Amino acid sequence: MASPQTNITSIEEFRYSRRFQSRTSARENTTAIESDGARKPVESVTVPVDAELEMPTAGREDKLSTRRLTQSELYPVRHAFSAEHIAALRLLTLSIGRSGRALRHLEEGDLVSADVEIQKLQTLLPELFCCRALGDGFGTIVNALMSAFESLSGNTPNSNQINAVRRILEMLKDRPFLTADEADAQLPLLEESGLSPYPPELMTFLSSE
Q: Global pTM?
């Protein structure tokens, strides 16, 4: 005898139907519809994470404007960290140290020790002049310093004059490749302290006219 038809769904069929619907819904939620109707994975249409972390252009420019450039970025490649450059940096560091100690001794009233440091500084200047291949400005500054000490006629410079020499040396260490015009712009600093940055022979010639 045939079993009567019924609309009641068995428990097994109901569970299978629920699992099928759940899997179908999950697939639909993880896809996106393209313009042509095809389904596309969600990952390919989401915005990259790094796009949200991109800083505004203005912020980047501000950072770049305050970044300190390295010597290799500032100086010509053919001279940067050459033998002359390294020697000049070493001699300038020694000269700055000598001038600083001379200034300290002078402030303490020890004129003898101050004069010794100045004499040691002067012996470094001819060696610095040998590094003038770094640029016309470098040679101009070193020659001006030698003339400045020569104009003292053996006398110990005062504190203002030593301070002026030290500032010139620090500038030259920071900018050894300066041009001749840039070097000429630094000479008034020596003149204002009472030092003559010009050779005595030149001053004698000019005064005789």
A: 0.59
